[in-house]
Amino acid sequence: MDQDRPAPPETAPAPPRVLLVQPNRNYLGVLARRVSEGGYRVATADGTQAAMAELNRLPVDLVLADLHVPGGGAELVTMIRDDAVLRDLPVILIAGRSDSHAAVKAFAAGADGVVLKPFHFEVLIARIGRELERARSVASLRGDNATHDARVVSRAIELGEMKERWLAAEAERRRLEGIIGKGAA
């Protein structure tokens, strides 16, 4: 009778989660609403320490932070890049148009991108999507590399074992040649 039962519907994967780090509550609300409308789940923090706590509390796919958050946006990037678990997490920082020095500092710290204010939210949403796609591609390549590395190690072990068998067979051949040589003499 189980064959007559319809298969349960497949659940779609959850949309990516973006951590928004912004000290201004009003702007954070607008940013959260617009990013959410772009199809992403949103988590929020008002500073570097709160952001790191959120990153350790729940899975996040991308960080979008203001350069001037308490604790510093570039410092947040450095903390993420120094964390073995989080180091590959995409990070985009928001800077003022006239703040080119801070943008350079953000890139030097390892930010994946800098968005200058004022910006169009459609462009920001497209940028988030592109960074998430790039992160998925990098993760896929890392998985492929791990698979290839495992295959190389496996083949190296097999070759080592074959060499040992060949050396043993060669030693046995020489031993038998010695016996045959003595018997023929």
Describe the structure.
The protein has 185 residues and is of the alpha/beta class. It has a domain of 124 residues: 3-Layer(aba) Sandwich (Rossmann fold). It has 5 helices and 5 strands; from the N terminus they run E-H-E-H-E-H-E-H-E-H. It has a 5-stranded parallel β-sheet, with helices on both faces. The radius of gyration is 28 Å and the shape is elongated. The model has no long low-confidence stretch (mean pLDDT 88).
What keywords describe this structure?
single chain; 185 residues; alpha/beta; five-stranded parallel sheet
Strand-residue proportion: 5-15%
User: Which CATH architecture of one domain?
Assistant: 3-Layer(aba) Sandwich
- Cα-atom radius of gyration: 28 Å
How is the main sheet built? 5 strands, parallel
Which range best describes the helical content: under 10%, 10-25%, 25-40%, 40-55%, 55-70% or over 70%? 55-70%
- Overall average residue pLDDT: 88
Question: Which structural class do you get from the secondary structure elements?
Answer: alpha/beta
CATH superfamily (homologous) name of one domain: Response regulator
